[in-house]
Specification:
alpha+beta, five-stranded antiparallel sheet, 3 helices, globular
Length: 133
């Protein structure tokens, strides 16, 4: 089956795994999804990840992060911003703030896939892929 929006599929698979309280979720890999996964790991939203090469497109295995006592997920909300039908671009001076800096926006820029804070520091704009908080 051909997926028209692979980033939306990535976010939906994460969202569904969190709602079902899964420990691990497997997602078909792409370079953009790998970069997004690295950002989620660096910012502490996921426990760990592993890229598996299956001689096709590959698989990303993501270990989800939950609070030990309350069993709350580290990710409370994943929102796709730039959709395949309507792309959302932003300049360096109008980069979005997610929950007044408590969340992150993942942005695809000329310097690679980075967070909104890094984009402000580098003074670059780009396509706003999603919000995570």
């Amino acid at each position: 089956m051909k997926i028209t929006d692979p980033i939306a599929d990535y976010l939906t698979r994460l969202r569904n795994a969190i709602k079902a309280n899964h420990k691990v979720v497997e997602i078909p890999a792409s370079n953009l999804k790998k970069e997004m996964t690295k950002i989620l790991f660096e910012k502490g939203y996921i426990l760990n990840y592993k890229f598996i090469d299956d001689n096709k497109q590959g698989i990303i295995k993501i270990a989800l992060k939950y609070h030990p006592q309350t069993k709350e997920s580290a990710i409370s909300n994943l929102t796709r911003i730039s959709k395949s039908g309507l792309r959302k671009y932003t300049s360096a001076d109008s980069l979005p703030r997610v929950l007044n800096g408590l969340g992150i926006a993942i942005i695809s820029t000329s310097k690679g896939v980075i967070t909104d804070k890094e984009a402000r520091k580098e003074n670059v704009g780009g396509e706003v892929l999603c919000y995570v908080h």
